[in-house]
Amino acid sequence: MLSTNTSKSPTIAAIATATGRGGVGVIRISGKDLLPFAQQITGGKTPKPRTALYTDFLDQNGNAIDNGLLLYFAAPASFTGEDVIELQGHGGQIVLQMLLQRCLELGARIAEAGEFTKRAFLNNKLDLAQAESVADLIDASSQSAARMAVRSLKGAFSQHIHSLVEDLITLRMLVEATLDFPEEEIDFLEEADAKGKLARLQVQLSTVLQQAGQGAILREGMNVVLVGAPNVGKSSLLNALAGDDVAIVTDIAGTTRDTVREQITLDGVPIHITDTAGLRQTDDVVEKIGIERSEKAVQNADVALVLIDPDEGLNDTTHEILFRLPENLKRIEIHNKIDLRGEQAGLQNEVSGSLKSGADMLIKLSAKTGEGLDLLKQTLLDAIGWQGESEGLFLARTRHIHALQAAQVELENAALCGNNQLELLAEHLRLAQVACSEITGEFTADDLLGVIFSRFCIGK
């Protein structure tokens, strides 16, 4: 069993590779003045910075634990900005645990989740948006998301934010300078084109917000629930969308007694689809658990696909399901099994209450033959506002969107300020700057940093 070092040692260590067997396993260490550390674990060898050293890794008695490569990165030219050592040995979990134990014996402690990246942020090796993109790159669920995460990691998003902040500072300087000369303030601001600068800032911010919104879609994806009466074809539609038999399909009504969740990728966007176990009252203990999970999935959904048998219409079961859907949840009515009715696939927009389900549109399709599935997939992307991957797009998070929206509100309020409200104008500009700077971490509460980095893996 690993004996942990519970002290708050400035030197941290962790296994940086994934759990399981592999050809190579990596231990990462970060701290100050790590050359003596390297010498003790190698039996007196002194590594050169940024040069691979092939060596045995020794225990306290001088016996070899493993052999492999030692890489030494001297501060500040390292990921964390501190001295960093990587021990690259064989990828078995036992030998990696033995190596990690040796690091603890030499004075290191086990790193907290995300602590390496947090140190990189605190040492100005990257800003907060870039730090978050490290986790986003690791967690990327599509090639598009991975490409966007790399752009954010390389600073594409941060550059937009820094540009906004610089322009806000310039405008603030103009406004606040005039407060010292009240008799000349109006002429001074007009000559400096303060209103024009503010208008251009609003356009610039709107553009960044739109791009960030697309990046957030690519990162977060969308949650879709399949709802409808038993045996209406929900499981068949899930299987058709997933391209595999992930849900049981039978002629027995109510076969699905628990939620079945599957993720597909459409144009790089992750779509999380949940086949619900029905939304109704029941005394069956097992079924009740499934229904509770279904209700939770519905509450978190962006879109509900409401499957209705057109021959039966809105029966009592369907009415009860619709009653349990949130009023603001976007609905798409689905008529499945068109192959049995001899109908054509197609889309019909809601007109004057023509769709009694409360849906915005109706799509006719066949999960069995695949007719209409491409139409449904494109409709889902349209529903979330996805415009397609474009050059320069970057990954963004919900907190980034909220910060940009807060800045947008402050600029809108600033534009409403009259000539005799310069102090109020200056305050709105200051708050807009603070909101933007929260994205890159220039103004960020410590508790938020704790939340962000706690979601990283231990070795990162």
UniProtKB/TrEMBL annotation:
SUBUNIT field: Homodimer. Heterotetramer of two MnmE and two MnmG subunits.
Subcellular location per the Swiss-Prot or TrEMBL entry: Cytoplasm
UniProt: (6S)-5-formyl-5,6,7,8-tetrahydrofolate binding residues: 28, 86, 125, 460
UniProt keyword annotations, A-Z: Cytoplasm, GTP-binding, Hydrolase, Magnesium, Metal-binding, Nucleotide-binding, Potassium, tRNA processing
Function text: Exhibits a very high intrinsic GTPase hydrolysis rate. Involved in the addition of a carboxymethylaminomethyl (cmnm) group at the wobble position (U34) of certain tRNAs, forming tRNA-cmnm(5)s(2)U34.
Cofactor: K(+)
Name the record gives this protein: tRNA modification GTPase MnmE
UniProt keyword annotation of Ribosomal protein present: no
PANTHER family: TRNA MODIFICATION GTPASE GTPBP3 (PTHR42714), TRNA MODIFICATION GTPASE GTPBP3, MITOCHONDRIAL (PTHR42714:SF2)
Chain residues that bind GTP: 231-236, 250-256, 275-278
The organism's taxonomic lineage, starting at the top: Bacteria, Pseudomonadati, Pseudomonadota, Betaproteobacteria, Neisseriales
Gene Ontology MF terms in the entry: GTP binding; GTPase activity; metal ion binding
Cofactor binding annotation: Binds 1 potassium ion per subunit.
Binding locations of K(+): 231, 250, 252, 255
Annotated Pfam families: MMR_HSR1 (PF01926), MnmE_helical (PF12631), TrmE_N (PF10396)
Gene3D superfamilies reported in the protein's UniProt record: P-loop containing nucleotide triphosphate hydrolases, Probable tRNA modification gtpase trme, domain 1, tRNA modification GTPase MnmE domain 2
Limits of the TrmE-type G domain: 221-385
Protein family: Belongs to the TRAFAC class TrmE-Era-EngA-EngB-Septin-like GTPase superfamily. TrmE GTPase family.
One of the record's GO cellular component terms: cytosol
E.C. number(s) listed in UniProt: 3.6.-.-
GO biological process, one term: tRNA wobble uridine modification
Binding site for Mg(2+): 235, 256
Coarse class of the protein's main subcellular location: cytoplasm
